[in-house]
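Priority: medium. Attachment 1 of 2:
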């Protein structure tokens, strides 16, 4: 709903009505009302009327014909709004509340404009939405030289100084000069970013998306400090960070920003802010930023007890699952280590068995690559197992190229045929040629799958010695 025009009702406000036949009662009420001084009247009004639609009648603004036409053409104004606690933030049920939201509600009743919030999640996104025309206003941007190039800023309705936020055990910073050679975490396109780059080049900037990420970077030691408004900085509970001194007297004014493409909207907003009584603005600031009464609680999912209990239950369940999973992994690790120990013992026994055979023995895989061999093989070919393990006979310089290729072809042929081979042949080793008796047989896994070949040889001269 929106206001489309003024009513014909008088603007004198509410009054008590009494019967004509009872004039004494009317006189009594008038005498009682007349005894109230101005301060008491204003206090009553601020307590019961500020924030209600009836108060809008008391604030009238004179708009130019062009401004009225603009309102008719643009009855709904979209705001690029990032959650900025106490000024504009979402409650648990998704409603936007805060000081800026209340002021916009007053302006809406005075002008007939309807303000719709489009949520943004970073300063960069807000600026992009304003430049592209996706949004026509914003309520959280502070003035800077870069922003003034394409944005107009309305009259201020408050503000707060910029302050340093540092780790709780660090010394409080007194000025930007003390950050020379250190890291400052800031949301990208921060209002002070251009000033710091220009006047404090010795400061290293660590740019992130949000203030929460900037605080996280400081808490984790990725940065030495960040900068927030004093209002925001004091909202966080004490922990690993603390609020320091103000940043060289820099001030973050609370105002609305409007692209220069919409001068009518900028003028309407300024006229509406100027028409609002200062007492009303002070009352709103007291309501949101301080004063007597019940303290403000910024609602979020964790402040609702049911959701909090569910979150605790989920964390406990996750912790139990993690404990069980950790116990299972430790048990599997113990079993694996025992199996590894047994396997190593078996492998050691196999190696000792192979090394006890005086003739060269070798084992190759399905591609002809060497898996293992015995000491006699190493001694006969003057090579170490560690240098040739996993290599094919064609990949090492043990035989001539022609012989190596021939041996590799024979190995692959036996793997394909799965037939053993026993033969007498002449082989040229690096140390010289000799006639040998060679044997090669396939070997299989327990499931019957072919794993490779086992082979060896002994030279004919040694066989003759055994015969003698």
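Attachment 2 of 2:
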């Amino acid at each position: 709903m929106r206001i489309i025009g003024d009513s014909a009702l008088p603007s004198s406000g509410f009054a008590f009505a009494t019967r004509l036949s009872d004039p004494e009662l009317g006189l009594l009420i008038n005498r009682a009302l007349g005894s109230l001084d101005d301060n008491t009247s204003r206090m009553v009004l601020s307590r019961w009327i500020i924030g209600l639609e009836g108060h809008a009648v008391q604030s009238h603004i004179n708009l130019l014909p062009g401004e009225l036409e603009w309102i008719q053409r643009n009855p709904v104004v979209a705001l690029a709004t990032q959650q900025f606690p106490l000024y504009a933030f979402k409650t648990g049920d998704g409603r936007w509340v805060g000081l800026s939201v209340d002021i916009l509600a007053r302006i809406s009743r005075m002008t007939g404009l309807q303000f719709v919030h489009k949520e943004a999640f970073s300063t960069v996104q807000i600026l992009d939405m304003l430049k592209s025309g996706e949004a026509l206003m914003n309520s959280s941007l502070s003035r800077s030289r870069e922003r003034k190039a394409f944005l107009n800023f309305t009259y201020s309705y408050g503000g707060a100084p910029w302050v340093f936020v540092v780790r709780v055990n660090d010394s409080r910073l007194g000025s930007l000069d003390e950050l020379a050679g250190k890291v400052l975490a800031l949301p990208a396109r921060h209002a002070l970013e251009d000033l710091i780059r220009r006047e404090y080049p010795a400061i290293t900037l660590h740019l992130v998306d949000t203030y929460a990420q900037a605080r996280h970077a400081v808490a984790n030691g990725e940065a030495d400090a960040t900068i927030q408004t004093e209002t925001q900085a004091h909202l966080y509970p004490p922990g690993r960070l603390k609020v320091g001194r103000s940043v060289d007297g820099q001030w973050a004014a609370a105002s609305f920003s409007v692209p220069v493409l919409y001068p009518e909207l900028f003028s309407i907003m300024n006229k509406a802010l100027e028409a609002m009584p200062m007492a009303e603005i002070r009352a709103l600031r007291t309501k949101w930023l301080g004063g007597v009464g019940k303290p403000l609680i910024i609602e979020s999912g964790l402040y609702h007890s049911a959701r909090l209990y569910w979150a605790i239950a989920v964390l406990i369940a996750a912790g139990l699952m993690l404990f069980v999973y950790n116990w299972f992994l430790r048990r599997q690790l113990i079993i694996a280590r025992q199996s590894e120990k047994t396997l190593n013992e078996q492998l050691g026994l196999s190696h000792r068995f192979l090394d006890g055979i005086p003739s060269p023995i070798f084992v190759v895989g399905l591609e002809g690559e060497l898996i293992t061999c015995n000491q006699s093989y190493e001694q006969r070919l003057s090579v170490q197992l560690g240098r040739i393990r996993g290599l094919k006979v064609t990949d090492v310089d043990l035989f001539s190229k022609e012989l190596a290729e021939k041996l590799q072809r024979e190995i692959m042929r036996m793997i394909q045929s799965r037939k053993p081979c026993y033969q007498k042949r002449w082989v040229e080793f690096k140390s010289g040629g000799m006639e040998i008796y060679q044997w090669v047989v396939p070997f299989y896994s327990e499931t019957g799958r072919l794993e490779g070949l086992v082979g060896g040889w002994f030279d004919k001269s040694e066989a003759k010695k055994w015969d003698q």
